[in-house]
Amino acid sequence: MEPKIIKTLSGMEVKIIPKQEDIPAFDSKAIQIKHIDYYDPPYASYGADEITEEVISKILEEIPQGLNIYLYLDPYGEVEMFEVNCDGEWLAISFSSHGGTNEEKNYYSYNPKYAGVEEFAHVQSGGQSPIE
C-alpha cells in the first residue's frame, strides 16, 4: 500500500504511511537516545550517560500503565524528539525532526478506524490532544 496524504480537521496535511508487518530485531547496542524527560510524576530526566538498556526496558514496561515521556536524539532535550503519550488505554506516538532548520517534519500515529471522527482523544501532550 502506498502512503497517502489526508487533511486533518484543523487543515494540516499529513502523510499516512501504512503499517508494516515486519518488525526489525532489537539491537540493544543501537540506543541513540541522548536525553529523556518524563512529563508525569516523578518528572525524572536522564542524560546520555544515564541512559542504559535497563532504563529503556523500564520505560517499555511502563507504557501499558500510562506515561508521558519525551525521548531526544540530542543531549540538550531540544530537537529530534520522540514522544509517547499513554493513559493505559490510548497510545499516541509522535516524532518531531527540526534540527534548528525551517524544514520541520512531524510524524504521528494514526488509526484509520477513527478517520472523520470529530472528537479529540483524552490523552494529552502539553495540555492538547495529540490525536485529532
Structural class call reads mainly beta
**Per DSSP, what share of the residues sits in E-state strands of 2 or more residues?**
25-35%
**Major β-sheet annotation:** 6 strands, antiparallel
Which term fits the overall shape?
globular
What proportion of the residues is helical, as a percent range?
A: under 10%
The count of helical stretches stands at: 1
Instruction: Outline the low-pLDDT stretches.
Output: none
SSE pattern, N- to C-terminal: EEEEHEEEE
Mean pLDDT: 79
The tally of domains stands at 1
Report how far the terminal alpha carbons are from each other.
23 Å
Number of strands: 8
Radius of gyration: 16 Å
Widest beta sheet: strand line-up: 4-3-5-6-7-8
Describe it.
- Helices cover 8% and strands 29% of the residues.
- It starts with a strand and ends in a 24-residue tail after the last strand.
- The strands form two sheets. A six-stranded antiparallel sheet has the order 4-3-5-6-7-8, with no helix packed on it. It has a two-stranded antiparallel sheet with strand order 1-2.
- The protein has one domain (4-17, 30-114).
- The protein is built from one helix and eight strands.
- The protein has one helix at 53-62, and strands at residues 4-7, 13-16, 35-38, 45-47, 67-72, 81-86, 91-97, 105-108.
- A hairpin with a 4-residue loop joins strand 6 and strand 7.
- The protein has 132 residues and is mainly beta.
